[in-house]
Amino acid sequence: MSLKTYRPTTPSQRLKAVTGFEEITKDYPEKSLLVPNKSRAGRNFYGRITVRHRGGGCRRHVRLVDFKRDKPDVAAKIAAIEYDPGRSARIALLNYVDGEKRYILAPIGLKVGTTVVAGNSVEPAVGNMLPLEKIPLGLTIHNIELEPGQGGRLVRGAGMGAVLMAREGEYAHVKLPSGEIRMINVKCRATIGQIGNLEHETESYGKAGASRWRGIRPTVRGRAMNPIDHPLGGGEGKATGGHPRSPWGQYAKGMKTRNVRSKSNKFIIARRK
């Protein structure tokens, strides 16, 4: 898959670079696996904005992706590789032998017509899902569970892949894409392979309107506001306003945001870089 660039016929086209769609084999999604997605524009149940700079954007349906793979030892054939507007990774449409259809994340090397299966004693091939205790050391994995049977929680973005480094007792040592090494129960399952669409991180939208299509609204700098609107606002000339922080005073750099008493600290062998 390559990065697609455009002739500089306009200022925005000059900078635009998006991933190609060569691997996409189907133009329209499976209707039985779609649910409507009502835009909430960053608002919670009470109608209050909890996530700023959200709103507008194109209407999109949610694709129901199967992170659990809870049909053990039932083979499925890859029917298509599709685009998902709600995530950075591509998704693959599975046709099970019993007639059911499901979506999974599409790893690198997964082709239409390939057979994949999830279970405790399946072959560690690309697209198959099995427990960490049955996966050979050194393999690249994704869609990793944190609790047995919970469904994949870790490593689900485009181009991501974790490495199974070691096993010690009832825990496996997994190196995550961030560089963090974490202990995970060997009964937890993971899918073999690295997620596709590697060029996603090098995309360039080219113009502000492309962010608006995605429901992202403009962000105003705090130092450009009045003192009543932001701690960094006001001042004669271009005043810095002090240490970078949010409108409510939460510092943006240097403060530890992780709870030092978090119960999951004991599972982290090496922190991320």
Tally of extended strands? 15
Major beta sheet, strand line-up: 9-14-10-11-12-13-15
**Whole-number tally of structural domains:** 1
* Name given to the CATH architecture: Beta Barrel
* SS class: mainly beta
Element order: H for helix, E for strand: EHEEEEEEEEEEEEEHE
Helix content: under 10%
**N- and C-termini, Cα separation:** 29 Å
CATH class: Mainly Beta
Q: Measured on Cα atoms, how large is the radius of gyration? A: 22 Å
Count of helical regions: 2
Provide a descriptive summary of the structure in words.
Helices cover 4% and strands 23% of the residues. It has 2 helices and 15 strands. With 273 residues, it is mostly beta strands. The strands form 4 sheets. The protein has a 7-stranded antiparallel beta sheet, with no helix packed on it. The longest helix is centred in the C-terminal third of the chain and has 6 residues, at 208-213. It has a single domain, classed as Nucleic acid-binding proteins (OB fold (Dihydrolipoamide Acetyltransferase, E2P), Beta Barrel), CATH 2.40.50.
Summary?
By secondary structure, the chain is mainly β.
Topology:
Layout: E1 3-5, H1 11-15, E2 17-19, E3 34-36, E4 61-63, E5 76-82, E6 91-96, E7 101-105, E8 115-116, E9 129-131, E10 140-142, E11 162-168, E12 171-175, E13 181-185, E14 189-192, H2 208-213, E15 268-270
Antiparallel strand pairs: 1-2, 3-4, 5-6, 5-8, 6-7, 9-14, 10-11, 10-14, 11-12, 12-13, 13-15
